[in-house]
Design brief:
The protein is of the alpha/beta class. Among the domains are: 221 residues, FAD/NAD(P)-binding domain; 52 residues, no CATH class. Strands 1, 2, 8, 9, 10, 11, 17 and 18 form an eight-stranded mixed beta sheet that branches. It has an eight-stranded mixed beta sheet with strand order 5-6-4-13-14-15-12-16, sandwiched between helices. Helix 1 packs parallel to helix 6, helix 1 runs parallel beside helix 9 and helix 3 packs across helix 9. The chain is globular. The chain binds flavin-adenine dinucleotide.
Length: 439
Amino acid sequence: MQRIYSDYAYGPGPRSNCWWDETIEAPIWPQQAGDAQADVAVIGGGFTGLSAALHLAEAGAEVTVLEAETPGWGASGRNGGFCCLGGSKLSSAAMRRKFGTAATETYEAGEEAAVNLVAGLLEKHGIDADTHSKGETRLAHSPRALRRMQAEAEALAAGGEEPDFLSKSQLAEAGLNGNFHGALTTPVGFALNPRKYLFGLAKATLAAGVKLFQNSPATQITRNGSGFAVQTPKGMIRCSQVLIATNGYSSEDLPGWLAARYMPTQSTAMVTRPLSEAELQEQGWFSDQMAYDSRNLLHYFRLMPDRRFLFGMRGGLLSSPSAEEGIRIKLRRDFEALFPRWRHVQSTHIWSGMVCLSRNLTPYAGPVPGQPGMLAGLCYHGNGVAMGSYSGRLLADLAQGRQPELPYSQVMQKMDKFPLGRWRRALMPPAYALLGLMD
Ligand SMILES: Cc1cc2nc3c(=O)[nH]c(=O)nc-3n(C[C@H](O)[C@H](O)[C@H](O)COP(=O)(O)OP(=O)(O)OC[C@H]3O[C@@H](n4cnc5c(N)ncnc54)[C@H](O)[C@@H]3O)c2cc1C
């Protein structure tokens, strides 16, 4: 596998000390070995791969999932658990300019369908994933951001909606007190324990007849008549179709079409020890809303049902033990700046992982050009709990040769190349610097 970060990014270092590991035991899947057949081979065992596999198996297909590492090893087992609207980094206005109104409205309907899909999967398969929060709350990080938020709330009111807007003086009463200037809540979405959701999905997938393999990286995909042969270290899967679901852990050569079309970037999160009632009151944060601030380089946070506080932000641009140490220090510093009354509260767990961007700043779900029978779903811009699950569902329909049942926008059918090829990470420092300046 040809990947664009150093080996450290793809090893155990960044994910060591991930809180979710302590909340549920990981299942053990066998390692793939020998020559086997399937209708569909899915590469990657995160939300995208498992959702695709589940929906395909429910429609009667024989499916094999190959996971290079262990269950929950990728971003799906180590994220912030915000199941919310998102997946693109384009504003609605920019999306309308680029793709047109109809495609944008279909995309936005898809974002909502994605959240509903996850809620439906939790219910249908009886997955208890410690959910909480009614929608998500955006907090203004500056007076200027507050003015923009106010204008947004006024526009919503003019359109007949009832915006859930809070001024600075109302934040404390709502239990949302920190270094913020106001808040606007979007009433869609909820928070969950991502690892419990993922393993619940895996259990449902197994029950539907899917074969799940760990420590089984696809090392090569070659054409085999009208289908494919997918090589693993100890065997091979011959199949009619292949779905690529590797997101931030993708490689340049699997398939070659992906080269320079995805940009892995890091995200870092921490969890504190449980906070006492007195500590919650002292800071004035006792709401269970999942929340984020209005920065371009945003922070996301939520008080979880066990009273631990989860806090995360973008990760570093480099991946090495010292870079990881540096970003963990910065994360802690930002946490203390936003929640000064919790300076003494220890963060017991800190970890990082890969998210994935595209040049178009939109997710992709669709065919791999020039490879009939191969499909890919990736690039959720740090928002793949709902969008990855939904993308998997789209891929399952597409693999069956039918128009997806859920909204499927043109917005998700374009994936251009970044400039600079394998060296495209050099684009990120100036981009982050600019976004930081705008904040
Ligand atoms: C710290 C952090 C916080 C985040 N917070 C949120 C959040 O709050 N809300 C939200 O919506 N999103 C969040 N995200 C993003 C979200 O986790 C991802 O978008 C989503 O999990 C992507 O799912 P996936 O299945 O596409 O990819 P992944 O879960 O990354 O799975 C890809 C898998 O592919 C495997 N793989 C790679 N190559 C091969 C190969 N050759 N053969 C076999 N397997 C292979 C990898 O081992 C990996 O397990 C966060 C991410 C991180 C890292």
